[in-house]
């Protein structure tokens, strides 16, 4: 009898465990989380030091800490979400000849990256 109870308890627990995993898998990442993943994936950190991104310690471009509080982007554009997307998509158009290459990103990828940079207060 006692053994049976234990078996039922174990079954119950593993069911609960299964539920937990499902819930986590169903949670959608936020734009900022997707942006952080993209930043790591495309390698912005080879040129920039970026808080919260592993291995992002490049010294080619300026560090992106406190990006949310800066007034200008690359000394050219007022720092707004729209302008940040513009910069990330097309740094060579905004500032021809600067050392940041056009990264070949889509607009929605640039928006996600912008959402992450906006968390850097
Ligand atoms: C090959 C090096 C390189 C790579 C790769 C690179 N950048 Fe840059 N980035 C630069 C340089 C250099 C500047 C400075 C441009 C200027 O001021 O004219 C810059 C400027 C910036 C700025 C403006 C910073 C400020 O202080 O105004 C932001 C934001 C930025 N980059 C984001 C990114 C993101 C996001 C990525 C990845 C999608 C990226 N960069 C990839 C070199 C790079």
Automatic annotation (TrEMBL):
<keyword id="KW-0479">Metal-binding</keyword>
<dbReference type="GO" id="GO:0020037">
    <property type="term" value="F:heme binding"/>
</dbReference>
<dbReference type="GO" id="GO:0046872">
    <property type="term" value="F:metal ion binding"/>
</dbReference>
<keyword id="KW-0560">Oxidoreductase</keyword>
<dbReference type="InterPro" id="IPR036909">
    <property type="entry name" value="Cyt_c-like_dom_sf"/>
</dbReference>
<protein>
    <submittedName>
        <fullName>Cytochrome c oxidase subunit 2</fullName>
        <ecNumber>1.9.3.1</ecNumber>
    </submittedName>
</protein>
<dbReference type="Pfam" id="PF00034">
    <property type="entry name" value="Cytochrom_C"/>
</dbReference>
<keyword id="KW-0349">Heme</keyword>
<dbReference type="GO" id="GO:0009055">
    <property type="term" value="F:electron transfer activity"/>
</dbReference>
<dbReference type="InterPro" id="IPR009056">
    <property type="entry name" value="Cyt_c-like_dom"/>
</dbReference>
<feature type="domain" description="Cytochrome c">
    <location>
        <begin position="30"/>
        <end position="121"/>
    </location>
</feature>
<keyword id="KW-0408">Iron</keyword>
<dbReference type="GO" id="GO:0016491">
    <property type="term" value="F:oxidoreductase activity"/>
</dbReference>
